[in-house]
Amino acid sequence: MAALTRYRAFFQFLRPQMSIMDNGSISQDVLHSLLYNRAQCARHAFSGETRKYSTDVKSGDDLIVKYLDGDDSGIVVFGIDRPKAKNAISKNLVKMMSEAVESVKKNSKVRTVILCSIVPGIFCAGADLKERAKMHQSEVGPFVAKARTLITELGNLPMPTIAAIDGAALGGGLEMALACDIRVAATSAKMGLVETKLAIIPGAVFTFQVDLTTGLAIEEACYAQVIPTKDRLEGLAAFKEKRLPRYKGK
User: Fold this and answer.
1) Has residue 227 been placed in a domain?
2) How far apart are CA 184 and CA 113, in angstroms?
3) Hey, how many other C-beta atoms are within 10 angstroms of the C-beta on 41?
4) β-pair type (75-80, 63-68)
5) Residue from 101, 109, 111, 90 nearest 11 by CA
6) Which is a GO BP term held by this UniProt record (predicted)?
7) Is 221 inside any structural domain?
8) Considering just the CA atoms, what is the radius of gyration of the chain in Å?
């Protein structure tokens, strides 16, 4: 649960930015600050420590949903809890998460949703292949469709969503994280769409976020240095004339 370390501090930082998030955009400075402050996020969100959790807690076999109150009112935490299956996505987990997403979508008091793991060292290992192997062929299609719908609905929630990634986030687990608006990763985080090595296409629609997210990082790196006007024109001319540019710092 390293990605949840001191999340109370994260919430305190996030709260003043709610007005920014409400209009559907987050500035680069705010986003950088969010990522910088991940080391101060709260580890004990699901530990025995008293954190002013409300009594409106909904628990099940695979998912724990906590509605925070007090200073953290408006924050809802979805905690995946399938330790024996490494938080793999099962039929029951899809059902419970779908119900939780539907519940917060209709609740105007919810301002932020945090998706995390209760199991140390693992975010989500992807689809539960042991359960899948026992499914009848006629069950597979509907299950995949429900899982895809869940991830789509998670991505379409009207409030900001944050994935706190600790350990491996693979396959559908990574796709759930990609569906969130912000991803905060511990140093232990490992991410991958490993099914592609078996020529299996990822099932959800949010894999395009990989390109968008890394693309923004590359774009920022490219524009980190201000290029003077004359050198910019020299670069264009060199490209057109198929020669090396002769930059002069002007």
Assistant:
1) no
2) 13
3) 25
4) antiparallel
5) 111
6) fatty acid beta-oxidation
7) no
8) 21
Residue 143: per-residue pLDDT: 93
Residue 250 lies in a domain: no
| Cα angle value 116/80/4 (rounded, 5°) | 25
pLDDT digits (tens, 9 = 90+) for 38-93: 333 433 444 433 333 343 445 557 999 999 988 889 999 999 999 999 999 999 99
In what helix (H) or strand (E) does residue 188 lie, and over which residues does it extend?
A: none
Task: Supply 109's token pair.
Answer: 């008091």
- Is 231 part of a structural domain of the chain? no
Q: What is the pTM of this model?
A: 0.66
Low-confidence ranges of the chain (pLDDT < 70): 1-60, 198-199, 203-228
Domain of residue 187: give its range: 2-206
The tally of domains found in the chain comes to 1
Active-site annotation, residues: 127, 172, 175, 195
* 53-59: strand order across its sheet: 53-59, 63-68, 75-80, 112-117, 161-165, 182-185
**Residue 95, token pair as written in the block:** 């059902």
